[in-house]
Amino acid sequence: MSSSPQHRNRSSVLEALRQAASTHACHRALLLLLRAVKFLLAAFLLLCLADILLHFGPGTRSGLSLTLLGTLFLLLLTAFLIALCARPAAQAMAGILEKRHRAFGSKLTNLLELHDQATDSRLSPLTRELAQQAVTDATRDLDTAEIRAQARAPFLKREAKRALLVTAFFLLLPLLLGEAGRRQFLRFLHPHGDHPPLSFTWLEISKPNHDGLEVVYGESTRIEVKAKGHLPEELFLRVQPRDGSRRPREIPLSTRGDGLYLAVLEDVQAPLVLTAHTPNERSLSKQRHLAVLLNPRIEDAQVTITPPAYTGLPAREQPFRFTTLQALQGSTLTFAVQSNRPLGTGELTLTTSEGASDSQELKPLPGGKTSTAVATLTVRESGRFHFALRDEEGRPAEDTAHSSLTVSEDLPPSLSFSQPQEDSFVVENHELLIEVAASDDYGLRTLRLLPAVDDQPLAALSEDFSGVGPRREQFRRTIQLNQLGARPGQVITFFAEAIDNCPDPHLTRTEMRRLEVISEEQYQQFLRRQADVAQIAGAYEQLLDQLHSQLREQERLAEKLEKLAQREAQGELSEAEKKEWNQLQEAQEALNEQLRETARGMEEMAGQTPVYDFEENLHQHLREMAQAITQSAAQNDQDNAAARDARDSAQAAREQLARLGQEQQQGEEAIREPLADLAALHELIKDVNEFKALYEEQKTLAEQTARFENQPELSPADRLSLQEMAGRQREVATRLQDLQEKLRRHAGAAEEDFPKASQSARELADAIGHHNLPPLGRESSQSMLSGKGSQSHAQASDLQQKMESLMSSCSQCQGQGQSELDHYLSLSLDSPPGQNFQQMMDSLCFNPGSQGSSGMGQGGSFATGIMPGQQMGLLGGRSLLLGPIGRTLAGQAGTRGNFGQSGQPLARVESNRAESEQEASSRETQTPESQATLQEYENLTEAYFRALTRTPNPTEP
């Protein structure tokens, strides 16, 4: 073949046609693909719309997605085949180019025909040459670049733009449609993924709000589902294990009314997949994955504490919170630890304070898989527990549990005397009650009382307890002093011992208690010194007041029975009236029993040793009254038993009322009235005694201030001494002021029966005022406070001399009182004079005026039960009561000592207790001598008593 320029030009044209054919085929394939894009995307959107309506399953969505992918693959294959195999021939390509570009005319077709003729060997050479020349001429006018340019598809750019716009719009749709659009696209892009379909109800599991939340094994968790759009009436939660080992469960959700639905998953033991859905499953939520924490955790613990057998205490089971645990030494502790997982063998270790350790296995309970492990150990020392848990697969617990142990020891018994509470005097022939209060934390084995008389041991009194023994015990023993052989002047000593039931026993011993025995005569002398007639009268008054109250009750019953008798006379009684009659008879029986109790009280009172001689006559009256009351009650019982109707009962009640009224009147005349008169006289006697006591105190003050008489300047010690005396001097002045008022008041009370003694008392009161004794005492006290030594002595001596000038008046008053008392006793009580006046003179129970009540000693103290010079109580004796007589002489009711009630007890001189629940003692529990030591200028009466009982000291000024 020639390589001339004409030949090369012709070849380039043909090559351009071949390239144009290739370009045309490629562009045809590209147009096919570009035009298929919108259809494929439209098909995808149609599938999404169909899925919204029909909710295709994962398989259907997978098939449809594969179909689309297959269609796309076929399109791509078709386009490839078109581009590769569907190239048009040169003649066809020339026709296509001539149609697209009219400037070509038919040149390309003619050129190809001439080229065929020039190469056709069947034609003549000339023809072929001419054709060749024609081809050469034709190619000279053709532009090969234009041929190639016209081969491009004319609508390729437009289709590309359309495809690009459609694709961009398709890609923007998920962004425009939000989560719903993205989820719908993903349903086909990822058919088997967690992409719920669109519906009118939007469901979302809001709690837990993310996947992978760890739940402790065996615990519960709360699930919350939020619904938007159309709120369904019912929702369900599908719960399925992540590994598919079990079938899914459907749990109904409860609604809260605001689009929130709740459910509780209990006992979560495996990782779960959660899905919320409506009953028809048209609406689904995204799945939520729960993880499970498999390490064991202590959920609960119990401890059983079994005390040692000797305590007798039962084993007790209690919750164990891993706080400090207390147990008795030798106790057995059994721990039961409960976990959320099936447990394997763990370990319990007790480390003592000294570093020693004791380890026990925490073994699971028998019977297969169990979440409870048990360990048992006996404790003897305090320490610290360490609990190490492992599950059945060997996983250790998340946290290590610790706890402290405090081991307590068995303490010795506690032992003390309840009675007597302190060392005391005891009256001979008294029935002595000894009471010991013993207690032990776990039980007593033996209690012993070991007495002795004058250090001579007597047989022990003991009580043994079998078994565990009581934890608290009141050991009481009543001892007759005559059985012990104790006589006045001897000392009874005793102490108690207690032994507990511990295997290693503990013993506790009380202190020694001492009781000195005194005679009845000593006691009476002491009581007369500390009491007065008003106090003695209180016990008599109480009995008379009881009888008076019972008389009023008898009167009330008689009136009611009389009314029933009148209604009975008018006709038969109704059932209600018969019931009332029976009730009245029962009330009468109860009243008769009260009367007999009062009679027994009178007999008991009459059997006591008299404090004053005139009480013998009073006791005789009490015996007679007791006998009459007892007989009256017995007679009334007989009459009531024989009563056939209300009239008989009314007659019996009237008769008893008359008998009791007569006894009451006799008691008032024979007992109360004489006691009131004698108490009034006794107040005068005590007032005179008080003046004498004040004189002795003033004399002492004058003697003690004598050393300051000639000292112009006092040392600090002298000033302090003088100031101390000022309080005592003021107390004397105050008592003199009160005494002046008491003398007048008591003289008025005793004037009717003892006019001469009363007149002497008034004269003494007038003399106290005439000589200005109280103002002189206050002036002397002020001088002492100011530290004026000589002036203090002069004033104290002046007051002492003026008081001494009145001592004759005191003697006159006492002499007249004695004669009038003897005369009164012979007339009113038919009693000989005896020693009554001297017995009254013994009383040092002074009334402190505004500071106390009648019959009181200093500060309201009474028969204290303390022997002179001793800090001891007194066991045995009689009760002292302040009744109406004492309150009348006191000048007012309700004064110090709670004397507003009749028969209020002042003291019961038979107990060493300061107060009892039934009778509150208002007496002081110290002797006058000891009180004066503690409070030297509080009570002048005690100062006088001290002056009478002290041993003279020749060195004392």
UniProtKB/TrEMBL annotation:
- List the keywords (alphabetical): Coiled coil, Membrane, Transmembrane, Transmembrane helix
Here the segments flagged for biased composition (Polar residues) are 779-803
Residue intervals passing through the bilayer: 37-57, 63-86, 163-181
Question: Which region ranges are annotated with the description Disordered?
Answer: 346-370, 390-419, 631-669, 770-803, 892-933
Q: Where would one find coiled-coil regions in this protein?
A: 537-605
Compositional bias ranges of the Low complexity kind: 346-355, 631-641
Regions of biased composition (Basic and acidic residues) lie at 390-401, 910-922
Q: How is this protein named in the record?
A: Uncharacterized protein
Which source organism does the UniProt entry give?
Roseibacillus ishigakijimensis
